Hints:
Elements: H1 15-19, H2 22-25, H3 28-35, H4 39-46, E1 53-58, H5 68-72, H6 84-100, E2 104-110, H7 117-141, H8 149-166, H9 175-181, E3 188-191, E4 210-214, H10 222-235, E5 241-245
Parallel strand pairs: 1-2, 2-3, 3-4, 4-5
Helix pairs in contact: 3-4, 6-7, 8-9, 8-10
Amino acid sequence: MQxxxxxxxxxxxxxxxxxxxxxxxxxxxxxxxxxxxxxxWRQAVQQCAARHTDVHLxxxxxxxxxxxxxxxxxxNRHQALLPAxxxxxxxxxxxxxxxxxxxxxxxxxxxxGSLKSDTVAAVREEAVQLLRIAMQQAAACCxxxxxxxxxxxxxxxxxxxxxxxxxxxxxxxxPHSSSSSLGLRLASFSSDATWxxxxxxxxxxxxxxxxxxxxSASWAVPVRDxxxxxxAVPRLSSLQQLVLKGCA
Length: 248
């Protein structure tokens, strides 16, 4: 928007500052409403670098904590491996996370509560894949701390070595996961989900200061999970608090 003299309206210069205020940036609903006002507000929201949003994802319930997930619940319904309700929730969250991940300050993930044992492995695998991709895409959208060649090499070697020691036939390491995660500014990650270990390689090493895991239910494969945890912790260079529950 410009004034009659053809210069930018000075009031619009305050929009980027306004959207970074916690009262706005901490609410996905408010951000979405602001983005619908006009082009200038939409650009301000897209460029917002504030980090005030705390996300609490409960896969065992019918609804998300935040209303924005309901609008995204139908994304990628063609993927049939997950049960329909869980698949739509994960796909909706992944879609939102890929677009607005840089706004997220903390992420708490809880597991689902009603799955048959023969579907747990498949569901766990796809859940991890969807969330890993979402976090990598969020990292790529806001790369605030580019990785050096040494950092990428060290992270890849550490992850590969731990995986090889834990499982006779391990999947190949994913060096690009480490490079992408350096752009995501997540400060806290907490989970008691059985598949949380699969997300450790994509947690942002430069910004994560708190990691909390409840291992009482997820320590299903001790050797594998111990190796994943041992590989992740040294990589998280900014970690200040490590809380492990139920690992005795």
